[in-house]
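Q: What structure does this chain adopt?
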Amino acid sequence: QVHLVESGGGSVQAGGSLRLSCAASGDTASTRSMAWFRQAPGKEREGVACISRSGWTSYADPVKGRFTISKDNAQSTLSMNSLKPEDTAMYYCASGTRFLCSLTAGRYSYWGQGTQVTVSS
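A:
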């Protein structure tokens, strides 16, 4: 069992930056990939970025060049720059046991409760 807790959300103006953190506890030795997803009101949850234990990363097209995911032992960080109003959503951290990370929600076994990010124009 892995327990994930996100932090760092908040409200910023367009063009601003935020850094989200995800702290993992429990059976973290089994974690081989971590990811960030987001869900805006009325929309489906979508993958934002993921990172494998090897350090390999993948990003959704809307955030490429603006977001950076990193991982340090049992913690994942999502650095978000040049934020846009369309980035407004609840952001969730997820972890899984697959060697290659994915932006598909079904590949992850554990999820955090989420942290809200609001970007105003």
